[in-house]
Hints:
Largest sheet: 4 strands, antiparallel
Amino acid sequence: PGLQLQMTGSAAVGGETLLASRDAIRYTEWITVAMILLILAAVYRAPLLVAIPMISIGFAVVVSTSLVSLLTSWSIAGAIPGLDLRIFTTSRIFVVVILFGAGTDYCLFLIARLREEALSHPWAEACHRSLHGVMGALMGSAMTTVVGLGMLWIASFGKFHYTGPVIAICLLVGLLVCTTLTPALLYTIGPKVFWPAQVSVENYQRLTVFHSPNSRRSYSSGVWSRIALILTRHPLTTLSLGIAVLSIPALYGLRHENAVTYDLSSQLNHSAMSRRGLRLLAEHFKIGDINPVTILMLRPTDTPPEAFEQEIKELATELYEVEGVATVRTADDPLGDFPPDRDMSLLSGDAWRRRTLRNHRLAQNYFYSSNPELTHRLARLDVTMDGDPFSIDTAAKVSQLSRFLHDQAKLDSSPWQGSTILLTGTTPSIIDLRTVTLRDNQRIKIAVVVAVFLVLVLVIRRLGLCVYLILTVLISYYATLGLTLLFFQNAYGSDFVGLDWKLPLFLFVILVAIGQDYNVYLVTRIVEEQRKFGWISALRRAVSRTGGIITACGLVMAATFLSMTASAWIPPLAEFFGWQSAGSGRSLKGITELGFALGLGVLIDTFYVRTILVPSFVALLGHRAAS
Length: 627
């Protein structure tokens, strides 16, 4: 009676992480669908215009996920030479939010252009003209995302390597559906798709600015027309102020980009059983004792047993001199109770325990291999380090330990010359993970920027403008990262140990790729209008005509990303109202942080970069060209 049972360890943490991932996927799907329905209903107030995008995207999700599953099964079976594809648990979250968000954006942009063309053309011609008019923008925006995410393929880390191509394949399917099935449905249903609203010139003029080819004056009461007018009249002022304001959080994000944690257990909330067990262990045991660094020393040739044991004793004595080493457990000292400066007294109970344990069969089998081929060649040592095994400081000490051992293997005078040395355990695993992912980060960031830039050049064909668009997305990324850091530092308080280590790279790739969507929509419309009007008039016309629909697209994408945070707030909200939550009550901080950051980044791109920075720069170019 009164006994408390807590389970912890790598299996418990991993199991609860998988359960939390399952809950996150389910909550994300529910909230994503609900948010898109609400936004579409608010934008269109027409049942059929809500139903058509949902039908199209639902079809795209089913087809794309089935296709990825089929390709993965072929990859595992080796049916297609060279095909290498795997699916991670959290890949479905990215597929759902990005496909629902991007697919809805494609449909919104197509329907908005159709509404525009239907004012002055028969329905069949309007459908044709609308699809033809937006196809370039849709292809450009989709390809920036597909190519950007596809660059994750060059990563060495598996979750990066496979997740990007999986999302890219699903997006291609989504683009195909939204440019075939969606226009077919619109064409078949006809003008009654706008019911109960009516598309009339009078209603449309309230939302549109009209320019005379021979005049720079504009007439409109729409908010986007007024924004366009201000931006084109004072481009240098708005551009300078816009960059200055965004640079403040961007500088903070740039300085603290590596403020991340590799502590896998910290991803679970405090109510998780395995997390509670870890806290109990930390209270009653030294945390280094329960996470030792295991060293495997493999000699190239057999050694006499007595000499082998003596060399291990001498190595253990030398290891105590390495900074951060607390204890060294060997077959001679199984518990690590006797550092070199402690004597084996005849009256000491610890000494008699040591004598008993080092002769025990279990201790011998633990520290020496029972394989006849390796009996006198392979030895194990367990080293406990001072400090938290998940911290960067402990990782630096273990790296120093590894260098010391590898130096021993290179010294001609060392008995371990030519030996193979392997380190495993919590801290060595984190060191390897950090090494691989940091190398991936550098390569992928360069590859994504170059790939997206090339797509922009092909679509927009204006080199200087493409360079500027890339710079705006980069400053948007760092500003988003800085604001995310500040938010979670305050939200978590003393529990904050850093953002999830995967967040900076996923945030960078997705923002650079998807953040260009709205820039492509706007700039391609400017280029189209410029064929009939002057530069400034084309800019005003493009901003006023695309402002509302791009804003709606941005809200849809931000809502889908923010739905990734649902597993953090739905269970406590349900509990507050006395409802039974369908989930386990677990949430993953990494998914919550990434969802918040992506949603915030899309909002910054939509309401700040696309609204202020891009039009101001284009207007400045126009004024200089005119002068």
